[in-house]
């Protein structure tokens, strides 16, 4: 693999949201690589969140190819773990049925 960087989790929050504080604390412990977007005064971040989820609720987590609205430890754990697994996959790896990759050093 040519140094592809892992996908970063995206956390959409609002200022003074108690559930957002809980979600941030969870991610700080569980998945410290994330980018936080405060939609309070940021219409572009709000638009992005609406595009990704269709909902104007926080906290919202986007990890890998999944998005979850509202903080729930069990759900967020599953989504973060799935996102971590996806970020480790090589998106350009061909299926084994094609044959060995002549450029694979593994």
Describe this structure as you would to a colleague.
Helices cover 38% and strands 17% of the residues. The protein is α+β, with helices and mostly antiparallel strands and 106 residues long. The chain has a single domain (9-88), classed as Glutaredoxin (3-Layer(aba) Sandwich), CATH 3.40.30. A four-stranded mixed sheet has the order 2-1-3-4, with helices on both faces. The N and C termini lie close together (10 Å). The model is unreliable at 1-5 (pLDDT under 50).
Give a brief description.
This protein is of the alpha+beta class and 106 residues long. 38% of the residues lie in helices and 17% in strands. It has helices at residues 18-30, 43-53, 73-88, and strands at 9-13, 34-38, 60-63, 66-69.
Low-confidence stretches: 1-5
The percent of residues in helical segments reads 25-40%
> What is the annotated CATH architecture?
3-Layer(aba) Sandwich
What is the radius of gyration? 17 Å
Reading off the top of the CATH hierarchy, the class is best stated as Alpha Beta
Write down the secondary-structure element order.
EHEHEEH
Distance between the termini: 10 Å
Query: How much strand content do the residues show?
Result: 15-25%
The name CATH uses for the topology is Glutaredoxin
Overall number of strands: 4
How do the strands line up in the largest sheet? 2-1-3-4
Total separate domains: 1
Give me the number of helical elements: 3
The profile of the biggest β sheet is: 4 strands, mixed
Secondary-structure-based class equals alpha+beta
């Amino acid at each position: 693999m040519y140094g592809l960087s892992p996908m970063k989790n995206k956390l959409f929050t609002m200022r003074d949201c108690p559930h957002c504080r809980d979600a941030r604390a969870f991610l700080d412990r569980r998945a410290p690589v994330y980018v936080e977007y405060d939609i309070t005064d940021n219409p572009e971040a709000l638009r992005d969140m609406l595009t990704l989820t269709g909902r104007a609720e926080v906290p919202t987590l986007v990890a890998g190819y999944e998005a979850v609205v509202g903080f729930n430890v069990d759900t967020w754990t599953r989504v973060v773990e799935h996102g971590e697994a996806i970020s480790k996959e090589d998106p350009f790896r061909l299926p084994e049925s094609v044959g060995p990759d002549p450029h694979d050093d593994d």
